[in-house]
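>> received
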Amino acid sequence: MNNFPEHSSPVTTPVMHAFAMTWTTSKALWQTQKRPRNPYFAQAYDFMEKWMQGRDEFVLHTSGSTGMPKPITVTRKQLADSAAMTGQVLSLGTGTRALVCLNVGYIAGLMMLVRGMELDWELTITEPTSNPMAGLDAVDFDFVALVPMQLQAILENPATKDQAGHLGKILLGGAPVSMSLLALIRALDVPVFQSYGMTETVSHVALKALNGVNRSNSYMFLPGIQFGTDERGCLFVSGAVTNGHKVQTNDLVEIQGNAFQWIGRVDNVINSGGVKIVLDQADERIALVFNDLSISNAFFSWWEADEKLGQKLVLVIEKELPSLTPEQLSAEIRKHVSGYGNPKHIYFAKAFVKTATDKIDKRATFQQFLES
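>> returned
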């Protein structure tokens, strides 16, 4: 359940730079600005207006990546406490120049607006795109929140790959980080963190350093977060960001001190012939094989009913492979993955179904594949 939630002269309406449209604002600037004509910037302006007017409660919507999207009500204090926690842990104080390129209609993008107002940042807002640096004027930022797909697009585009060094501290969330992206991240000089959180915790409650001298395989809990596991081994958290309520997750974890390693979702565990298989761990093993073979196709491990095994492991790949047959790929996987971790079938889907926040909807994708 990984979520994540970012310089120029004062403007009263969106400014069309050389290539990309941006709107620069801050707590002070907002008070002199007119409501932008651009609908997306107007959406950000309207939320800031509610905040500046002192609204105490806000209705947010979960992403829908692990079930049906649902509305939840959070308090102003929860959002403000989350912003303060991020500022403290990442040393992002007054005057921080942040790029806001995640959808402000969801918690990750909305929290960038809250941080800007609570911590007195300068916000450069741009509409969400797969590569937020494409066509953006060369400006140095101190902080940005991205989904992994965006950072990968930035680093793989010859026109933007050198601009990552101008983004300051990078916060990633919303999806797993692939092996190929991790290799690119470790070559960066700017610090990159992967976040752990969800809408119910109003952004992240733990961070993992992906590069630099402090890089780790574990997430570190943020100050003020209480945590533990239930009888299934699934994480629960509470704190000011949850309004003191215990938020129970379905995430299997191993806790050591103030840190934890994420194993996978408990509802992503199947029983195949009496052997429990964690689909998220199966994904990690397949990812290593794909990385060695330079396969960039998106994929996920899933299951289907089997008369003998009960549930059998299958692999679903987006689009056909350009250089390998399914038989050749199966042979390569068998070289590196032991018996029960081998997919019993490999399926190819034309396109994966995505949620509103661009996460793969695995259940819907497989169901659509079967129906087709």
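>> The first strand starts at residue 15 and ends at 16.
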